[in-house]
Amino acid sequence: MERDWSEEQDLLRRSLRDYVRDRVTPNVLAWEAAGEVPRSLFSDLAGLGVLGLRLAPEHGGGGLDFWYTVVLLEELMRCGSIGVPVAVMAHAEFATMLIDRYGSPALRAHYVRGAAEGRLVGALGVSEPDAGSDVAALRTRAVRDGDAWVINGSKLYISNGTIADYITLAVRTGGPGARGISMIVVPADSQGLTRRRLRKLGTHASDTAELFFENCRVPAANLLGAENDGFGMIMSGFEGERLVLSVMACSHARLLFEQARAWGHERRAFGQPLLAFQVWQHRLADVLTRIEAAEALTLRGIDLYVRGRPAQSEISMAKLFATETARFAASECAQILGGQGYMEESLVGRLHRDALAMTIGAGSSEIMRELIARTNQLVAK
What we know:
By secondary structure, the protein is α+β, with helices and mostly antiparallel strands. The protein has eleven helices and ten strands. It has helices spanning 7-24, 28-34, 39-47, 66-77, 83-102, 105-116, 230-266, 278-306, 312-337, 347-354, 365-375, and strands at residues 122-125, 141-145, 148-159, 166-172, 181-187, 193-197, 208-219, 223-224, 268-269, 272-273. The strands form three sheets. A four-stranded mixed beta sheet has the order 1-4-5-8. It has a four-stranded antiparallel beta sheet with strand order 2-3-7-6, covered by helices on one side. Strand 2 (141-145) and strand 3 form a beta hairpin. Helix 5 (83-102) runs antiparallel to helix 7. It starts with 6 loop residues before the first helix and ends in a 6-residue tail after the last helix.
């Protein structure tokens, strides 16, 4: 995305571009085959000083704003595997950010510092078999027993779920609805916690798990903030998560477009390049127009978010339009490649099958439309 980047941000971009080119891109097929990224990815990024960009400086973070996360995301997306930035963001932006904001000094000293240094990997556990977009319906329950919480229930579709050292877990500690939810940090080696890896259509380099809690005991001190205040914590993190998906979707679509344009110039049919045919000129013109619009919406949402302005509607619009644009671009760009666009060895083929995840994660397109409607007085009273 085009904007006036600072000299510091440009330096960060250059160092990340070199790292991604030399250490990430050559390995993405192996990581996708393994179904996870290696621990070395986290330690490498920590060494570059980018694993905790927005985390508190007193615990090893950078204390920087979301524009630095944009730089990190755009450069990681160049590797051609959406699973790589998903793993990094699930750790640094989603799971650890809540501990940094709401954790006790002891929790922050242990988990936030460990996360920023790449020694610990985190996951955020919210979704359940019966509670995805409807967070207030979650059932996993934690009951206080002396100096511990005893947790029973399950979580589904948890990014980093099998490689994480800790799960920032949403649980029910009170009555039904939003007011009975709390957040607890669960060490992954806790007795009573078991994990099962799920197989997905795409984003293969990011492991996704189902988690089971059976009388899982966790120290009472691992509660984030006050008991039954967890719903607000989850909601406070959603804007950042949705901007992450918006940036990723814009980068995803841009990479697809660049690949399709290059193919259109190189590939010949009936004695001329594909882009000599007006049909492909116009189809790719539509793709580029949507990308530019998606980037403009995303920049607007980020600007409001960084300045601390109310931005639920703008961020929801950015997430909706950018992720839908990524799916549109994936379909159009895979089509121009023909059979090559259907191959796992093809970058466009992999980007095509990965695009669907973006319209689901961090709130589906349907939820984004609902939020836009509610915040813009489109719901009849």
